[in-house]
Design brief:
With 277 residues, this protein is of the alpha/beta class. The protein is built from eleven helices and nine strands. The chain is 43% helix and 21% strand. The longest helix is centred in the last third of the chain and has 25 residues.
């Protein structure tokens, strides 16, 4: 069974569509767990309405310590052996959950299954597609602009058992909890990437994540987190990360000079202190 977990707080604008997205997956072997943080808008009324009609919807509403805490509560409630996190304003592509369920039948436990994710703007226009095809820890730590990590949980799924190996989401981490989890998970899980688009992540102006990106704090936080995990690696893997970074830089230089061959001699001259013109 797949346990789809949705943390929400004052999400009346999106919760009905979120519930419908899961319903329209037409997946018989699932439950949708809504963990509400004590909303003061119409969120709970909407959840109650749908829960009365659809038996796969389970829900809880109480104060929590933030998004990570809500997700952890959902994981404790989960009856399924496959975990999916679906934020209230994100959504799946059609028939994703049946596709994922079929793939997991042939995967060992614990596995992390990753697909592609559409990154959308406020009006659902496509900005880019996140394709995290290199998922070894020594690839991810090279740099998120070089080897992107899975950008949003609407496009990845994993065995619940994985939390027994890496722990739950860090309750005191309110921004990069998913990246922190992934950097632990890829080191112990069987990781499988499928080049198919499964999730849709809305970058909505004014939300916590977008504000964090625009302020520049997101990039600082990610660098600090990646540095932390880099320092925890064995020395030979730290060297491997460094080699991969240098290889990427060299590859980019070759690509640049292949397009701009007239700049090769001036650049060499500058390095050697020789005037070439």
């Amino acid at each position: 069974m797949i346990s789809v977990i949705t943390p929400v707080y004052n999400g009346a604008k999106y919760i009905e569509n979120c519930l419908k997205v899961v319903i329209e997956q037409n997946c018989s072997d699932l439950e949708h767990i809504i963990v509400d943080g004590g909303s003061t808008d119409a969120t709970v009324d909407i959840i109650k309405k749908y829960a009365q009609e659809y038996s796969h919807i389970r829900w809880l509403s109480e104060k929590d310590r933030g998004q990570s805490d809500a997700m952890n509560k959902g994981i404790h409630m989960a009856k399924g052996n496959i975990i999916a996190i679906l934020n209230v304003d994100d959504f799946y592509e059609p028939n994703v959950l049946n596709r994922v369920s079929a793939i997991f039948k042939n995967l060992p436990e614990p596995s992390l299954l990753v697909g592609n994710c559409n990154i959308l703007d406020d009006d659902d226009n496509l900005k880019r597609v996140n394709k995290p095809k290199r998922l070894k820890i020594t690839d991810l730590l090279v740099g998120y602009n070089i080897n992107p990590f899975p950008f949003n949980p609407s496009a990845y799924f994993y065995h619940k058992q994985l939390h027994e190996k890496v722990g739950l989401y860090e309750v005191d981490e309110h921004y990069a909890m998913d990246v922190d989890f992934l950097l632990k998970a890829v080191q112990v899980a069987n990781v499988k990437y499928i080049n198919e688009t499964w999730g849709n992540y809305r970058q909505i102006a004014g939300t916590k994540t977008v504000n964090d990106i625009n302020s520049g704090q997101n990039a600082i936080r990610l660098r600090q987190l990646m540095q932390k995990y880099h320092q925890q690696l064995p020395v030979h893997k730290q060297w491997l990360v460094a080699v991969k970074r240098e290889y990427y830089k060299a590859e980019k230089r070759i690509e640049y000079f292949s397009k701009n061959p007239n700049e090769i001699l001036p650049r060499i001259g500058k390095r050697l202190g020789i005037r070439t013109s």
